[in-house]
Design brief:
Layout lengths: L1 E5 L10 H7 L6 E7 L1 E2 L9 E2 L3 E3 L2 E6 L1 E2 L8 E2 L2 H9 L3 E4 L6 H12 L5 E6 L11 H10 L3 E4 L2 H9 L5 E4 L16 H6 L7 E8 L6 H9 L6 E8 L3 H10 L6 E4 L7 H5 L4 E4 L4 E5 L4 E3 L5 H8 L4 E4 L4 H5 L4 E3 L4 H13 L1 H18 L2 H14 L1
Parallel strand pairs: 1-2, 1-9, 2-6, 9-10, 10-11, 11-12, 13-14, 13-16, 14-15, 16-19, 19-20
Antiparallel strand pairs: 3-4, 5-6, 7-8, 17-18
Helix pairs in contact: 1-14, 7-8, 7-12, 10-13, 12-13
Length: 387
């Protein structure tokens, strides 16, 4: 089976691991990833990345000339794409830019014009209802009409695509898996000592952006109610709410329990997760952000959850978006924005270390079974075969 995947996401080599595993699952599988030759992550003010070719047996990454260097929806590829597709002759074409992308329409059209007879797929994270105006509505209609299968990052996204008329096969799975060779239980005594964490401290962890939709103020308020317990809050990230979090903690007399860590390279995040006795993702659905197609935000997946689970760290998440589906029965879920309920979940783990340990073990088993790069590669291959 020859599999062609196109996305700007795979400019980052770490993101390629699932597809690298897929290429090596069994003989006869070839995976070619197409990435933009030039890309500006994070917007026009960032430095342009010049991507490079990589080839490892039946797996390769090929930069192709592109138009638009910082807009996913407007991304399209140059004429060198044609010769690459003709020579590769894929059985599967998967474009990971969503249902409304020009790049996906480009691949669909080339598939037809070159008579490749490949199956057309796309991946999307989008999990909120939306309305489209012409000509974007026409673009999505063309894409959906010519789609053989969809990989969706969350259950809400799958339901939205059904509502928009897609009747074909779908598989719900995240775009990226967890690297269980890196994110695994590992003692970090030197780092703990450096941060002033003692063996009897219960470390509550948060990894992410300090922004309203991540619910971090709810987490701080929930911990304030547990002043009589011995805990510390390890905050890994940055964002606009840092000053407000600090002020809130000072007013409640717990600022000395906060440990601030600026964002670190992703390859080092596992070290901090392994210091935690629980990781909390208290995301909150919001309608504060407006776009030309929709309004609102809710958690699309929560990748840090599966990273913590793979480290045997028990997780607590709100019921925003996909979080309850990610956690399943292997963690604790609370109603988003509810300080009392989150405080109750935290107290259960702090007061019963055996329960917390059992929950961590359940999360680990779930992460290994469902969310490693190898598990997702196998699931993806079976989905391709079903088409």
């Amino acid at each position: 089976m020859k599999i062609l995947v196109a996305s700007h996401s795979y400019i980052v080599d770490l993101n390629c691991e699932k597809l690298r595993v897929l290429a090596n699952l069994e003989p006869g599988i070839e995976v070619t990833i197409i990435v933009p030759k030039r890309w500006k992550p994070g917007g026009v003010m960032k430095d342009t990345i010049e991507t490079r070719s990589r080839e490892e047996g039946s797996f390769r990454v090929v930069p192709v000339s592109n138009f638009s260097q910082n807009n996913q929806g407007l991304l399209t590829f140059g004429a060198d794409l044609v010769s690459l597709i003709k020579s590769f002759q894929p059985d599967i074409i998967q474009v990971e830019q969503g249902s409304k992308s020009l790049a996906y329409a480009e691949f669909i059209t080339l598939n037809r014009l070159l008579n490749l007879k490949a199956k057309n797929l796309f991946f999307t994270w989008w999990n909120l209802p939306y309305h489209l105006k012409f000509p974007v509505s026409l673009l999505e209609a063309y894409n959906l009409k010519n789609t053989d299968g969809i990989v969706v990052g969350n259950q809400d996204g799958a339901e939205i695509l059904r509502d928009r008329g897609f009747t074909g096969k779908m598989s719900v799975m995240p775009q990226l898996g967890v690297d269980d060779s890196l994110f695994c239980p590992q003692s970090q005594p030197e780092l703990a000592a450096k941060l002033g964490i003692q063996s009897d401290d219960f470390v509550v962890g948060f990894v992410g952006r300090f922004v309203p939709e991540k619910g971090i103020l709810t987490l701080v308020k929930a911990l304030e109610k547990l002043r009589d317990r011995r805990w510390k809050l390890l905050l890994l990230g940055r964002g606009e709410l840092k000053a407000e979090i600090q002020k809130q903690a000072e007013e409640s007399g717990v600022s000395n329990r906060l440990i601030w860590i600026e964002s670190v390279p992703h390859a080092d995040v596992y070290r901090y997760i392994n210091l935690m006795n629980t990781l909390v993702l208290p995301s909150e659905t919001t309608d504060q952000f407006k776009t030309f197609t929709s309004a609102g935000w809710k958690e699309q997946f929560g990748h840090v959850l599966i990273e913590a689970m793979a480290c045997q760290v028990p997780v607590i998440g709100s019921d925003s978006g996909e979080i309850p589906n990610v956690i399943g029965d292997a963690g604790l879920v609370f109603p988003e924005g509810n300080v009392e309920e989150l405080s109750d979940r935290l107290a259960r783990l702090i007061d019963d270390r055996d329960f917390a340990s059992d929950l961590g073990q359940q999360g680990y088993q779930r992460a290994i079974a469902k969310y490693t790069n190898r598990a997702l590669a196998k699931e993806l291959l079976e989905f391709y075969r079903s088409l």
